[in-house]
Amino acid sequence: MVKKKKSGLGKIKGFSIQFLPYSEIKDLDSDERIKKILKIALGNNILILQGKLRPEEETRLIEDTMAMIDHVKDFLGIELAVIAGGNEEGIMDKMKRNIIGMLSGGDLGAITIIGPATVVKEIKRNPKKIELLLNK
Amino acid sequence: MVLNKFKGMFSKVFSFGKKKDISLGFYGPPNAGKTSLANRICKDFTGEEMGSVSKVPHETRNVQFKEKVEIKFKGKTMVFKMIDTPGISTKIDYEEFLKFKVKKKEAKNRAKEATQGVIESIKWLDDMDVVVIVLDSTENPYNQVNITIIGNLVARKIPVLIVANKIDLKKSDIKKIEAAFPEYPVVGISAKQGQNLEKFYEEVFKVAKKV
Q1: ipTM of the complex
Q2: B11 inside domain
Q3: How many domains does chain B have?
Q4: Chain-chain contact of B144 with A124 (C-beta, under 8 angstroms)
């Protein structure tokens, strides 16, 4: 799974894919979560996070990303996608998922993919599949 | 914090009985036609446009607003404060602007202003009463930015209307947008050609009544 790793940004010489279980961010506050996620992206890593951020955390992530573009050389931003069930499920399934989410503190059925724009050109998605297009 | 709460209570008490204009925000990804739509509405009801439009993404890099826009529809009038926002995106690369023959220095400056514009757009979310999400109906609607904006509006209990713009183009697919956001009203329009705006005003009035 892991390709050649490089330090710093700029032309891609390699990248790694990191999986982060929800337990790793569960007890962090929003500031710490965003900081952790951006640190991973700034290291040219594609992050696969179990669960998803809250809507206000997602916008905060976008805001902080924009601020970073201004301050970190060669950082162009991120590609972000959240895959979550729920579109076609019934009321009972939705309720079950909400209860599990409340107990665990997050939507564990969801997966969030975050990659630096220098590595990930586009995350193409439709209801049935997701494609990660990487930069050459 | 306490001071802010006090200020809020104070303004609520003293604005009692005064009819506040409805803040109508235009949100969406870059180049979806937010300013074109805002211009079309302003031109129809005030005779003036709101901002400049361009094929180059991130043409709107500051939040622009127009107060007291009286929209009349089927004998009814509603007064809006129209707020046109810079397109929200998760990445900005000045090299994208070079493709549109923008000079390098200007492109870098545009990128810098665009990042500030995105931050400004997000900050303004709290000030909206109703939001029109403008999407390009020729593009894939399953874009995380769209979902993130809508998620934030739902969390803030702000009514949403989705506009599928550019229906005059061959590649336009409103059904795809309706399928992506089944819980929200979707109206197909062409801001550029002025197509289906009556339906748009009807939906705006419906959504604004929820405020």
Answers
A1: 0.87
A2: no
A3: 1
A4: no
Indicate yes or no: CB of A56 within 8 angstroms of CB of B122: no
Three-state SS at A67: helix
Question: pLDDT per residue over B56-104, tens digit each?
Answer: 999 999 999 999 999 999 999 999 999 999 999 999 999 999 999 999 9
Looking at per-residue pLDDT, the higher value among B102 and B14 belongs to: B102
Query: Between the CA of residue A96 and those of A36, A76, A112, what are the distances in Å?
Result: 30, 39, 21
Cβ of B146 under 8 Å from any chain A Cβ? Answer: no
Instruction: Map residue B94 onto helix, strand or coil.
Output: helix
Q: Check CB contact under 8 Å for B155 and A76.
A: no
| Min Cα separation A1/chain B (Å) | 25
Closest-CA residue of chain B to A128: B142
Q: Residue A29: inside a domain, yes or no?
A: yes
CB atoms B179 and A58 under 8 Å: no
B114, two tokens: 């665009």
| Structural domain boundaries, residue B154 | 19-208
Of B163, B158, B145, B159, whose CA–CA distance to B200 is shortest? B163
User: Residue B15 carries which DSSP code?
Assistant: T
